Amino acid sequence: MAHSKRNTSLAFFTTHERSLLKSTWGSQSTRLTRDSFLPFASCNLCLQPSRAPVACASDGDIFCRECIVSNLLAQKQEMQRLEAGDRRRRREGEEEARGRMDEERERSVREFERTMMGLEGDHHHRNGSVTASASTEKKEMEKGKGGVKRKFELDEADIQDNAKAERAKARKAIDPEN
Questions:
Q1: How many beta carbons lie within 10 A of that of residue 140, not counting itself?
Q2: Which residues fall within 8 angstroms of residue 175, CB to CB, at 6 or more apart?
Q3: Is residue 53 within a helix (H) or strand (E), and if so which, with residue range?
């Protein structure tokens, strides 16, 4: 039998399928039996006849006193656990943000100090990468199109002398009385 001949290939029910459905599942003759209902005054949590019944004022639901107290305590503990987790996540986020701000501040101070000592030129970005103009100059040098550049050499002694001079200038700026 081909696929198109099967009953399940249609997007709607045939008369035969509808009659089968009515006879078993969708009939109005199906009645709810006694087992489908809870006995009067049974607890909505444990589904047993309630012991020491307590009614909800807003809905009229009936619960066992023991069941409702334990359920409310469990809900309260769960809410406290979730709130503690939220507070912990918030605190961790704040600490992370504070740490990022400290790192950024340290990095900017380090960059400022390096710039003031003359270790870092104008052709460097904040992260130390070379700008487009410096990289094009480098490419031209590799291709042989550019002229010969002079090299600037800076040894350790020059760096130390510059650092001492900058420290002296900083001390003078901080303490103008000396």
A1: 12
A2: none
A3: strand 53-55
